[in-house]
């Protein structure tokens, strides 16, 4: 039986508190990073208000890679 090997993932820096990620249409501000969850605010260019959102760390990392985010502060 063949056991599949894990892929080496090279990409984003590890998420940490206080990071600001810049994307084409929005900015993502990381508020708090737990073991599995990330609390963040997503600021869109045309939005007046934003809410604090909590998502799985893998989902946030996937979102940042898909949108080609650049770490601005952190």
Name the descriptors.
74 residues, 5-stranded antiparallel β-sheet, 38% strand, globular
Order of helices and strands: EEEEHE
Structural class: mainly beta
Uncertain ranges? none
Beta-strand percentage? 35-45%
How are the SSEs ordered, and which strands pair?
Elements: E1 20-22, E2 26-33, E3 37-44, E4 52-56, H1 57-66, E5 70-73
Quick summary:
With 74 residues, the chain is mostly beta strands. It has one domain.
Overview of the structural elements:
The chain is mainly β. Helix content is 14%, strand content 38%. The N and C termini lie far apart (44 Å). A hairpin with a 7-residue loop joins strand 3 (37-44) and strand 4 (52-56). The chain is built from one helix and five strands, in the order E-E-E-E-H-E. The protein has a five-stranded antiparallel beta sheet with strand order 4-3-2-1-5. It has one domain. It is globular and about 55 Å long.
